[in-house]
Amino acid sequence: MLTCCVSSIRVTASTEAPSVLTESGASMSVDMWSIHRVVVFALAAASSFTPVYAQEFSQSTDPDCHSHDSQRSPHTVKSRWNMSVSNLIQDPDQLRVSCKKLIEAFPVDEVDGNFVRTVKNCIFSKSIPTPLKGPLRLAAVSKDVIEGILDLHVAVTQSEDFLHYASGGRLLLESVPLAHRYGGHQFGYWAGQLGDGRAHLLGQYYNRKGETWELQLKGSGKTPYSRSGDGRAVIRSSVREFLCSEAMHFLGVPTSRAASLIVSEEPVLRDQFYNGNVKTERGAVVLRLAKSWFRIGSLEILAQSGEIDLLRKLLNFVTDEHFPSISSSDPDKYLVFFTTVVNETAHLIAQWMSVGFAHGVCNTDNFSLLSITIDYGPFGFMESYNPNFVPSTSDDEGRYSIGAQANAGLFNLEKLLGALTPVLTQKQQKVAKMILKGYVSIYQTRIHQIFKAKLGLLGEEEEDNYLIAFLLKMMEDTQSDFTMTFRQLSEVSDMQLQNRNFTQMWALDDLSLHKHFSEWLNMYLSRVNGQQNDTDLDRQNRMKNINPRYVLRNWMAESAIKKAEMNDFSEVELLHHILSSPFVTQETAEEAGYAARPPLWAQGLKVSCSS
Ligand SMILES: *[C@@H]1O[C@H](CO)[C@@H](O)[C@H](O)[C@H]1NC(C)=O
Ligand SMILES: *[C@@H]1O[C@H](CO)[C@@H](O)[C@H](O)[C@H]1NC(C)=O
Ligand SMILES: *[C@@H]1O[C@H](CO)[C@@H](O)[C@H](O)[C@H]1NC(C)=O
Ligand SMILES: *[C@@H]1O[C@H](CO)[C@@H](O)[C@H](O)[C@H]1NC(C)=O
Ligand SMILES: *[C@@H]1O[C@H](CO)[C@@H](O)[C@H](O)[C@H]1NC(C)=O
Hints:
The chain is an alpha+beta fold. The chain has 20 helices and 13 strands.
């Protein structure tokens, strides 16, 4: 099962979704090396892809976020609120963040206090954050989230009050902080109770666009689920989460968001590479948001411990709140829910692949039921194209290598099905298994669409799969930079391609060293030049809107972190700003070398799970 969905692409003519290629099944129509293990990559919405930055303030019709709200008419939303910027909330005390709905919906842990324990028969435990030692500093803030989601005037974030609210030192009026009980499969094995070990859910916020968002602090101290942890997060990992979740949003990938990053003077001991070298770092807290923080592991723990009534209750809550198209009286509603998660998880992972994102820890507790990217830990963006790219030092076996993510998704969906089994009839279980079988082809179809769009291809031609696989194979052989190869293909004119004029195009320069480059180039040029109703400029513009020029490369984050640890947050701010328009060439980014060949010191940088 585990190897079945490495999405190799069949090189023979096939009009529909590419089928899985076996080592022996490859039939090659062109006399060259065999493209056996071309792992194909991908992203979100191929031909119809619009970068999120172009639509971020539209009414919530985003199909990826199954919010209740998408059903409310824009008209109702507008009449409730005056959307003028001057009407933003100026005083954080007026922010109404409430856990009422969650507390009323579910039983809450009867035991109080943050001591570590096994918890049963509940979804949440009440847990008060532990304030960080001051002085506190605001290291970064996302105006887009603060104003666009929280309706707060960004000036509020400069206040002393905000520092306390956003780091757990003070509680908003109606907030009853909760820690969520969940379990999960880690690296393939059931790990039992996990839960929010250093995160506190502050409550839900119903914003003026009519959306409901859940606010969470990360790094805010111990909870009943802290196991052996200290409940803290360090600056290093918090900067990475803040920057990457915001960057992913602007790349158009469904994700949790980050509102602010607050750093403290609280000493936190970490052995970053688990080699006995313990260092004192400093504590930080990210205020992060998602429409929901429920995970596959949220359901698993209930099924595993036989709490089936509660399992049903949680499923009903999640479907009612977040899957408005599922009717609560539908006898097949859990099946429909499963079908939706299978589809959207396949789509999400395809989007990760399209931007070269490796999550790093695809355990079931890190996989959202809403199929958004959550839990940014030892993630990485692939630089040189390599399907075996593993961002995390803790993953020796490469279980979660970039090319294995689709498999990890399938494994996690199997576990989700396992958790749903107690509430499905025999017949529904059978159907669910069939649906799960369809995952591979959903993923591959998406990958195919996305990579076609990344190459600017319109329509469908027989050799498209071959063209894509051929390119990726050359990239692998020449270790071309993933992001910049696609970007530079978007920026060259067909004349330049024809003449192989790659002045300043370092990634294409690398690629063109491949002995079969000319063959591919001729195929590509004839494919794009033969497109009806298309111009070279249109092709370039389409491609520039799907192939980012800037991603959060490890070395970029590392450099910003070094400065942040010295209380210089300028580079965090610069990166945050630049990565908010990743498809647009920006002077400051060019000066900083963010689209240039990575510096030598960047080679071999690794990230660990320690955070
Ligand atoms: C919205 O509020 C602003 C500032 O308070 C005011 O000037 C404007 O007239 C209001 N617009 C509507 C449609 O009520
Ligand atoms: C699958 O998910 C994608 C992404 O959210 C969505 O656009 C598409 O309509 C879904 N397909 C089905 C059949 O629901
Ligand atoms: C992912 O899952 C593991 C356990 O399965 C957990 O320890 C970790 O905190 C989660 N998040 C990240 C970012 O790794
Ligand atoms: C190569 O392309 C650049 C534009 O990027 C152009 O300025 C230059 O003249 C071209 N060189 C040749 C030899 O065609
Ligand atoms: C050609 O493209 C234009 C603009 O993209 C579109 O409006 C028109 O319908 C297209 N025509 C054909 C024949 O596809």
